[in-house]
Fold this protein.
Amino acid sequence: MARCRGLLEPALRQAVSVLHPWGARMAAFALGWSDTDGGPSAGDGGKGVRPAITMLSAEAVGGTAESALPGAVAVELVHAFSLAHDDIIDRDELRRHRAALWKAYGVGPALLTGDALLALAVTQLAGRPEAMPYLSAALIELVQGQTADMAFESRPWRGPDAVTIDEYAEMAAGKTGGLLGAATAAGVALGGAPELADRMWAAGRDLGIAFQIVDDMLGIWGDPRLTGKPVHSDLRREKKTLPVLAALASGGAAARELAAVLASGTGDEESVRHAAHLVEEAGGRERARELADRYLSSALGVLDACLPDAAELRALCHSLVDRVN
């Protein structure tokens, strides 16, 4: 990861340097390089998982990490764009232990910065026909997945119109899996093996579902010192996350009590803590872990078949799902 970040950051800085100075300053803040006034910052710019996957995928087919840099920069810029917009949609005021972009500069500037990052991402692969279709597909998947996630919020917790686990998986495959699919597919394509790109795209989508499930678990039980967000944040917003859906589907006494708590609202601290306890008691945490492991295994099966010597890439994929017990 450190090796990949060392290659990525100079290329990222070069990419955003073409922006208007104000836009470049906001982009630098979003990427963790500066504070709100433009001064140097030791802020957390993220681990760079997606670009690392792109570069390691290229190396696994005999290419170099440098050959995949356009794809690596593109997926990181798209990721930063999506976070800028997601925080506005979800009204999250914190991102990586500091103010979200919209909270620091306002909604309009944050939207504009996100748009600029997206435009720069597309520019990175505009002349790379072997990789660009996967980035384009990921953008469509991302929007579709985010739209589904928002639409879920207006649907009931129980009954014939409730969100199903299969619907959740399709949402996660788009919202999170599409960009991971683009990272893997663009990596092998730019590394010299475009014939493997479609299969790696599918593997990345499965990896994304596993990744999103783990994110959902962290949203309920994660340590705020590590996640940068308040504990039980997803339960407070009553988001249709996998642990909750799985708990409700279990059908036992804890599931029925959880449904009653959710129906009455989780506005206060006591009710949200009780809901988290009921999710675990009803088996939601265990079921979420099982499903995350299943999707990870599916992704690794493709990886092993296509890239049998990709030990670093395999270890990185494992780390995405091993973030929570």
